[in-house]
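Consider this:
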Amino acid sequence: MATPSLRQLDIFAQMVASGSLSRCASDLGITPDDVARDLASLELRLGYRLFDDLAGAPRLTAAGRKTAEAMTLLSQDQPENWGVDQADGMIPATPPSESAPSRQSIVLAAPAPVFGHFQEALAAFEAANDDIAITLDLTIHLADEAAWALRRGKADIAYFYALGETNEPSSRYGWSEQINLYAGAEHPLARRDSVATGELAAMPTLAMEPRNGLRRIIDEALLRGGVRLGDPVLETDNLFDIMTILREGAGCFAAFGPLARDLGRMTGIRRVALERPLPAIEVRQALRPESPAAVAALAEFLFL
């Protein structure tokens, strides 16, 4: 998933199981504000909302429902609190019917922010094709992961981040997302009209954890672009910690996609105006050759 922290995943799972903010906080032994803060951080990372009316009568959004289903793939153990059909009405149970026709299953693998990009199109396709069941895998981020999933039949369609066309898997270009650097609004470099990339080497860096898929592709893009940033002073997947330190003026943070969009809208944080743009990240789509015709139809529909 863009590797959110296990704490955030656990809180999301417990929130689904508990059905209310106060009950979730009580079950976890933390405050409702802590629950809301971690869920907001998770939503910021994913690029879409998980719940409607979180503080009142919370219900999963359509994207939140899909995410709850998909996140069971993150763990082999699948703890009991992932029983999303028991979530106090948030996801009503649908008992299987012996007379119901079988549905063709399509597994769509994509980074969570990419799923956020086409979630409405995906919902429309499902509504128009009730004989097709679409399962999400939000654990795929890079080309090697997509190739592995497609090769082993773990996915029928895979979206992934890359810096251009890849040898494996064979893919097509979807769109590009620009990497930007962000710093506190009062940071000297953030207040400049133009900043040379060579000046960034002395600037401390805030970064996601090394195994995070977003961190890996950003590091590769900066390396290819000949951009050297200062050593990380913080490596964390807790975006609220990153935002807090950014606002305090300690370092810069590289981001792209929905996360970069949201950072650019926040008070106290400003995009660093570089003299030349950083390399762009491509979102690419690949298909499993052995997949049925419905897979190609869905892949084309998502490109409309």
Notes: The mean pLDDT is 83. The longest strand covers residues 280-287. The longest helix spans residues 112-128. The radius of gyration is 20 Å.
